[in-house]
Protein 1
Amino acid sequence: MTVPPAGGVSNASGLPVIGISAGLDTIDRGDWRALRSVVLPAMYAAAVTRAGAVAVVLPPPGQTAVDDLGGHAAAVVARLDGLVLAGGDDVDPARYAVTRHPLADDPQPDRDAWEIALTRAAIESDLPLLGICRGMQIMAIAAGGTLDQHLPDVVGTTVHSPTPGVFARHTVSVLAGTQLAKVLGPEQIEVPTHHHQGVATLPEQSGYAVSARHEDGTIEALEDPGARFRIGIQWHPEAGTDVRLMAALVASATRRNVPHCETSRP
C-alpha cells in the first residue's frame, strides 16, 4: 500500500495537488430523483489545472461519517500541497452567533463544519490557502470574525450582486505593502463579483489584515502576513481571465511540494 507522507501527495506528474472544497445538493439526473450529490462549478478545477496543478475535489464527509472531523481534515490536508475554499451558499449565521437574515440561504451544516475544519487544519500546517467569496468568509468565521448578512442593507446598493445568476464587475483597491499587492500590484483592479454578504469584523488575534476594499468600504480581501500564502478574496478569479492569484497559489504549493518516497507492501 502506498502511504503518502505529510506535505503533499505522491503523483506521477510531480505537479502540486490542490484540494478544492465542494458542497452537497439534491439533484435529479436521468432516472434518479433527489440524489444527494457533490456540487462544485467546473470552473474551479479548470482554473487550478490551467495554473499548473492537479485539482482534487473535497466534499463534506458528513458529521456522522467520521468520528473526528478535525482529525479527518488534518489527514486530508497532510496529503495536499494547497487548498482552495470555493464559493457557495451563505454560511449559517449561528456560526457567528447572530439571527438569520430573511434573505440568507438555507444552512448547510455539513459543509460549514467541514470547511472550518479544513481551514483550521490548513492554518496549523501552514498549507497555502486561497479562500474565494464564501471561502474568505469561512476563513474569517473560523478565526472568530463576523459577517454582514445582506450588504445592500449596509452599503445601500446591489453593486456586489446586481443581477441574479450573473457575475457583475466592479473595481477594488489593493492596499500597498500587502502580499496581495505583490501578486496583483497596489492598484485598482476590476474583478468578477457576485455576493450579498461580506466580512464585517476580524478580531485582532485572528492574524488577518485587510488587503483590499471596495470604494463603499466592503472588505474585498484579507491575508495573514506571517503565513506562507493565506489569502481570502471576496471576488471570483475563476470566473475571469486574470490568472495571477491562482498561479501564485500554485507557485507557493510547488515550493512546498517535495519528492515523496513510497512505502510499498512487501
Protein 2
Amino acid sequence: MNKRFQPPRVLFNASVIFSAYCSKKGASRALMLLLKQKRIVGIISETILDELLKHADKIPMGREQLQHEIVRNFGNILPAPEEKNVSQYKHLMMDHGDAHLFATAKEQHCTHLVSLDKKHVLFLKNKLKPLHIVSPAELILALKDDNTKK
C-alpha cells in the first residue's frame, strides 16, 4: 500500500509572518518559500490576520499589499476559533491572548505550530502532544530529517 505524501499542516503565529516579510533571509522567510512550493500547508485564522494588520506598520509594505500577500500565500483565512475551545487553553498561558493559537491548531488538525515567541508560546514545546510547537529553524530541520528518512 502506497501512502501519498501529506504535507505538514502548520499554524503560523504572527511573529513568524512578521519576520518573513521583514527579512530576505532566515528561517521564517524559508518557511514562506516552502509554503509557496506546497511542501507545507500554511494555516492562519482571522485572529492572526487581524494582529498582522493591526501592526502592519512594522512591515515594509502597505496594509493592502500585506493583506494581498497573506491571502496569496495562505489562501483561505480561517474563522477565529470557537471561544469554548480557546478557554480550554487559557490556564496554560502566561498571556491568555495566545490561547487562540492552540485552539485553532486543534480545530484545524495542525501537526505543527510555528512561532518565534519563546516566552508565551515556545515554552509549551513538549506539553501539548501531538502538536509540535517549534521555531521556524526547528521546523525546517524536522522537515529535512523527514526527507532523509524517505
Protein 3
Amino acid sequence: MMGFIRQVLVVARHELADSIRSRRVVVFLILYIAGAMLACNLFITVIHKLERQISSVMLLPESRTPGAVVDTVWKSKIFQDMVVSMAGDRKIAQEFFNVPVIALFYAWLAFIFTPPLVMLSASGRISEEVSTGSARFALTRTSRGSWCLGKFFGQALEALIPILLSAIGAWCVARFRLPTMDGPEAMRMMIIYSWKVWIYSLPYIGLALGISQTTRSQYLAMTLGFTAWIVLAILSAIAAYFVGDGINQVWQLVQLLIPMDHMLGLWRTSVSHSCTAALFLVALAFAYMSAGYAFLSRKDL
C-alpha cells in the first residue's frame, strides 16, 4: 500500500514538474490571475458608474467613498427581501448578506470559468502520452492505476496554485479601488471561496482525465471533454425543471451525479453544507476517473 502511494506521489510530482517545464502552468497562471483582476476591476468600474447614476437621479451629492452606495443598498431591507424572494429561503439568503459583495463576485466568476479551464488543461494529458508512446516508459516503473491517479493529483495541484493566486490578485485590485471595504473579511472570504472553487474543479479534472483514458487522440479527448461539460450543464437544467414528487424524484438521483448541482452547497457559509457538497464532488471525481480507467485497464498500450 505504501509503495502504491509513493508511486502516485512520484507521478503527481512529475506531472506538476512537466507543466512547469512546458510553461503550461504559467499560461494558466496568467489566465486565472489576469482574468480575475480585470474582471474585478470592471465590476468596480460598473459599481462607480451605478453610484453616479443613482446620485444623479436622486439629486444627491456624489459619494466621496467608492462603494458606499452599493453597500447601503446591499444592507437595505427592501433589497434583502427581494433577494430572499429570489432565493426562496431566508436562511440561505441571510448567509450571503454577511459576505462582502466583492467576495461574492469573485466566487461567481471563479465557479463559472474554472470548469472549462481545467477541462482545457487536463483533457489531453493521458491520451497525449498514450499516443506518443511515452506512457510505456512510465508504466515500466509503476502500475496503470497509480499512474492515472498521480496524473489526477498533479492536475489538481496545477489548478490549486492559480486559483489561490487569482483570489489574492482580485483582492489587491478591490483593496486599491475600494479603500473603505472590510479588507480582512473580504480576503478571508475570497480565500475560503478559492478553496471551494478548487474542490468544485476536482470532478471536472476527473471527468477530463476519465475521457482522456478512452482515446489516443489528444484533440478528440478535448472535444469530448467540452461536449461532456455542456451535456452535464443541460442535464442539470433539465433535472432542475422536472424534479418533483412521484416518478419525478428520479431526477434527484440525476442531480447527485452532476457537479453543478452541488455548487450551492459550496456557496453557502454553513460548514455542514459545504462539507457535504465537497464529499460528493470528490466522490464524483474518482467515479469519473474510474469509469475511464475501466477502458484504459483493458487497452493494449
